[in-house]
Amino acid sequence: MILITRLDTVVDGNPLGPRIPFVAEADGVRLAEADLLAKSYMGDETGRLVKVRWEPGQSTAARLVLEAAIAAAEPGQVLNSSINAEVHTDPAGQIALLESCGFELWQEEEGFWWSDEGQDLPAPEGITVRTLAEVGTDRFAELMAACTTDSLDRIDVDAVAAMGPSRWATEFLAGCGDSTWLLAEDAASGQAVGYVAVGEFDPGVGTITYIGVAPEHRGRGHVDALLKLANRTARDLGFHAMLSDTDTLNIPMQRAFRRNGHSSEATGWHKWMHRREV
Question: What pTM value is reported for the model?
């Protein structure tokens, strides 16, 4: 018989807040675990992240702890879960478990890997670059909010709809303040055309935290200039590589990554985001 136990809430400084652990045991052997966190990293204010782990062959126990975590959420809350082909040994099994418990695919992301092999990294042409400190938070957030128009990132679309563009931009900027944020202006007119941020993913490996082009300046090659800027910035920050990702629906961004030396074939990083309302 499988016994499901809700353990005491854990407060350990996690940025997503306290977590409620659930365990499934049989004859004193732990078969599966689930954590229900207080917040979601996906930008949904009503959301909570849930994580499930189980021993091989213990999918029934996994389902039971997941159901217990779902039951512990409050009515009206949204539960989120993330599966990554590079991290999970059985992503198909994880996805099947989530979907059997009422979760639906929210977003799918493709990973891209860039390596610094000492190649020539020419400065992007046609733009001037200023840092967040030079521009100021207000102007930077204003540009970020404008760049959300017609976004192809499904999670961001939902977050912006829930929070409003200005608030989303301000909070996103504050939450990723340890990245190097750069605003690009048209060299001739001085108009802000887009921005890019580069941060640390792992020791020695960076990531493009965020990138955006103002709607009125799209289709003019600015995304390529921003990616060239990101590559140079990663080198300047001492990263030997970058791992970034984009929504699988965002075909233009995938093409831009490939044009600028980022390869999806060079990494197993691939994420599926699921959600369900309680």
Answer: 0.90
